[in-house]
Amino acid sequence: MTGMESELSLATYGIVALAAFAGALLASMSGTGSSLLIAPVLVPLIGVKALLPVIAVGSLFGNIARAWVYREWIDWKLFIKVGLPAAPGVFVGVLIYDWLPQSSLLAIFGIFMIASLPIRRWTDNLKLKPNPAGVAAGSFGFGIIAGSVPLGGVVLVAMLLGFGLRGGAILGTDATISVLTNLCRVSGFTSVDLLDFQLVTLGLIIGVMTVPAAYIGRYMVVRMGVNIHTKLLDGVVILTGCYFLFEAAKAWLNDTP
């Protein structure tokens, strides 16, 4: 069940479209961030249970656009090494997402988003040279995260940074792997009845708005200082993580007799 009880207004679709454009602009410049801005807009409208399914639909089209923009820099060998083992992990993550109560999902989202900052800082200069079994296991774990929380992109970017990718290579490779994982997410959420026509429509709106954002982001990424963009994205992550923790606390208090 998605938790939606009424039709959404045209104004609501417009607000979602604007938030999606802003989030996609961040994602196009960093490889992650789209779901961070759109999440606080969507949760009050559709509930946390429907959040990741909608994001999965929008992210699918957004990553297709971003993969095309950065197509000449894609590392296809890493796509095979990381993407293929991640795919079955996504379906496991979807089952976990479907099983967890909404209050727990909110708390997990908040903790994961805030914890992603030190994780990313730690991996910025990390050089990974694992054996094939290690890569497959880590990629499967990433797939579980991608299927169960809206910030799996942070884990993927951290992995690709560890493999030495930078600039357009990390953006293009991340987008290509994300196309595969989002295909798995959409399939998985449909199979457990977490996607309906209205949610797919919202996801399509989000996806359409990411196309112009991908091209504008490519223009800006060359001109915006890395430090400025990193600080902006970090601020969004912290604020959104705090928002999720606040909503989780309210949900738990309301459930207390």
Keywords for this entry:
257 residues, 0% strand
| Quaternary assembly | single chain
Report the helical percentage: over 70%
The major sheet is characterized as: none
Describe the global form.
globular
The pLDDT mean sits at 80
Number of helical segments?
Answer: 10
> How many distinct folded domains?
1
What is the radius of gyration computed over CA atoms, rounded to a whole number of angstroms? 17 Å
Structural class: mainly alpha
Secondary structure layout:
Blueprint: H1 10-30, H2 34-46, H3 51-69, H4 76-99, H5 102-123, H6 132-148, H7 152-162, H8 167-191, H9 197-223, H10 226-255
Helix pairs in contact: 1-2, 1-9, 2-10, 3-8, 3-9, 4-6, 4-8, 5-7, 5-10, 6-7, 7-8
Task: Describe the overall structure.
The protein has 257 residues and is mainly α. The chain has one domain. Helix content is 81%, strand content 0%. The chain contains ten helices and no strands. Helix 3 packs antiparallel against helix 8, helix 4 packs parallel to helix 8 and helix 6 packs antiparallel against helix 7. The radius of gyration is 17 Å and the shape is globular. The two termini are 25 Å apart. The mean pLDDT is 80.
Short description:
The chain is mostly helical and 257 residues long.
